[in-house]
Amino acid sequence: MTILVVTAVPAEAGAVSAGLTTDTVAVRPVGAGPAAAAAGAARLIAMAEAAGRPYTAVISAGVAGGFAGRAEIGDIVIGVRSIAADLGAEAPGGFLPIDDLGFGTGVEPTDPALREKLAEVLTGAVQGDILTLATVTGTAATAARLAETHPGAVAEAMEGHGVATAARAAGLPFAEVRTISNLIGPRDRESWRMAEAFAALTRAATAFQTA
């Protein structure tokens, strides 16, 4: 039994691997963004199935931005839903999510049983929706709009919905776990606390091998 943990970049994969003490978790970086995440995760899942060693679950993991007042820097966040927040169409009255267009859904619920197992180990973790964006937020106006549109959202990243799509297509349980490196708003790289987020990602990895 092996769980696949998909990250965007090698630094995130390294932080997760540093917290593992068993070989029941495979950690693989697949690239940034929803397209790379979906394609990379689907390829890994298919290769494991072809080799006769299928994965039992898939987790999207990495750092993220947190919505102020909902998640703080250094927090571990467990996703309740992964939402493709910019998948849809512009309209005179505002943004229309793909669900309203009738072309599918941009909302992927995480597996309740897997989420519960993670929460049992990661006591104190924040639970809520995690937004997936191809273009992450860099202004106060966008942060405010997303917070209003998605009142259950606690964080945003770039890969969760893509990994969730691959997991759903394969019939595998899916979860998303993020650690907060910065608060969502005006882009300010100097305010990011990557060391704290990576340390939290290493702590979060302890739950992956018991899920």
Task: Using brief descriptors, characterize the structure shown.
single chain, 211 residues, alpha/beta, Rossmann fold, 5-stranded mixed barrel, two-stranded antiparallel ribbon, 7 helices, 36% helix, 27% strand, globular
Secondary-structure blueprint:
Elements: E1 3-7, H1 10-17, E2 25-29, H2 34-50, E3 57-66, E4 76-84, E5 88-89, E6 96-97, H3 98-101, E7 107-109, H4 112-121, E8 126-132, H5 140-149, E9 153-157, H6 160-170, E10 174-183, H7 194-208
Parallel strand pairs: 1-2, 1-3, 3-10, 4-8, 8-9
Antiparallel strand pairs: 3-9, 4-7, 4-10, 5-6
What does this structure look like?
The chain is built from seven helices and ten strands. It is globular and about 50 Å long. The model has no long low-confidence stretch (mean pLDDT 94). The protein is of the alpha/beta class and 211 residues long. The termini are close together. Helix 1 crosses helix 7 and helix 2 packs parallel to helix 6. The longest helix is centred in the N-terminal third of the chain and has 17 residues. It has a single domain, classed as Nucleoside phosphorylase domain (Rossmann fold, 3-Layer(aba) Sandwich), CATH 3.40.50. A five-stranded mixed β-barrel has the order 3-9-8-4-10, surrounded by four helices. The chain has a two-stranded antiparallel ribbon with strand order 5-6. Helix content is 36%, strand content 27%. The relative contact order is 0.26.
